[in-house]
Amino acid sequence: MNSKLQQIEAYVFDLFHQDSSGHDFHHMKRVANMAKKIAETEKANPFVVEAAGWLHDIGDKKLFSNPEAEKQKLHQFLVSLELSEQLIHEIDMAIRDVSFSKGRQPETIEGKIVQDADRMDAIGAIGIARTFAYGGSIGSLIHSDDETKGTSVQHFYDKLLLLKDLMHTSTAKSIAGQRHRVMQSFLDQFYDEWNTY
Ligand code: NI
Prior knowledge:
By secondary structure, this protein is mainly α. The chain has 9 helices and no strands.
């Protein structure tokens, strides 16, 4: 199984190593590793969890100009690894669970784990760095005194500070608390500096 995961890693490297929007190869690597760690204390298929962690952003509409074609290519790649149809189906389900995050609960434990791992990478110090990288990539302001603007700082209140309470697994819940505090102290310091002059 390991060599299949190595091939998956190489496939992901090709697709994401030049990304500068916070969805780079290292995001995929951290999500795969975090998902693997969370899965240690859950009844889940560890191969499906790790593979879906690596692959979860493939076909994301904000990252690919032709998401459907990218998903088909991924399917062909998984077939070429000679994974069973059942395994491919389970990986697909887990990825779909993550991308359906808005207003829909994941149906599979593997999907819940990968969603927790993806959300974990959106908070804490890495989450802060990724927020501003992504904001820059879509032309958002860092911050504005006009609260109606969709700034990167506003994104903390709209989404990131809510994530610790949305984690599914106990492992993720226990890690998320500390990362949440890192964001809060970052924002405190940010406003101190913003308001000084
Ligand atoms: Ni992601």
